[in-house]
């Protein structure tokens, strides 16, 4: 404190005699220009690398029944050394994680992270009119 006034130092070296913030416009314009240059450089690097996008399978229906009932009403002793696959809750062997209840487990196996680990995108195949008509005939 100098004579009852607080002196602040911001992005500039001059001391400010009052409590209100005063911005050094030149300093922040310089920072913004550097950030833009960095973004342009990164975009150029990505363009030069021309990485092939990851091709994943389209989303398709599960070919197995999800087992939610096998652990229902059962007790299990869990210690510090119990492997994750045998701990309480539902274990996902694809993502190597344990989910504590059935609703969150269903959310997990239908979620983006799990589907990516299975090698699928979240996009689905578009059905043609003939495919829809055949489906209605079956049901």
Write the layout of secondary structure elements.
Elements: H1 25-49, E1 57-59, E2 90-92, E3 97-99, H2 102-109, H3 112-117, E4 120-124, H4 129-138
Parallel strand pairs: 1-4
Antiparallel strand pairs: 2-3
Low-pLDDT runs: 1-5
User: How do the helices and strands follow one another from N- to C-terminus?
Assistant: HEEEHHEH
Rg value: 29 Å
Count the strands? Answer: 4
Profile the largest sheet: 2 strands, parallel
Describe the 3D structure.
- The strands form 2 sheets. This protein has a two-stranded parallel ribbon.
- It has 139 residues and is an alpha+beta fold.
- The relative contact order is 0.09.
- It is flat and about 75 Å long.
- 35% of the residues lie in helices and 10% in strands.
- It has helices at residues 25-49, 102-109, 112-117, 129-138, and strands at residues 57-59, 90-92, 97-99, 120-124.
- The longest helix is centred in the first third of the chain and has 25 residues, at 25-49.
Index terms:
139 residues; two-stranded parallel ribbon; 10% strand; flat
Structure, briefly:
With 139 residues, this protein is an alpha+beta fold. It has four helices and four strands, in the order αβββααβα.
């Amino acid at each position: 404190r100098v004579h009852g006034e607080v002196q602040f130092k911001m992005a500039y070296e001059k001391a400010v005699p009052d409590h209100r913030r005063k911005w050094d416009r030149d300093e922040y314009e310089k920072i913004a220009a550097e950030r833009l240059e960095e973004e342009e450089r990164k975009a150029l690097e990505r363009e030069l690398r021309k990485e092939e996008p990851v091709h994943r399978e389209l989303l398709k229906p599960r070919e197995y029944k999800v087992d939610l009932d096998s652990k229902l009403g059962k007790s299990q002793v869990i210690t510090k050394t119990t492997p994750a696959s045998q701990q309480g809750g539902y274990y996902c062997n694809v993502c190597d994680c344990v989910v504590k209840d059935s609703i969150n487990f269903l959310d997990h196996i239908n979620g983006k992270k799990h589907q990516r680990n299975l090698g699928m995108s979240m996009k689905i195949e578009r059905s043609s009119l003939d495919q829809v008509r055949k489906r209605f005939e079956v049901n």
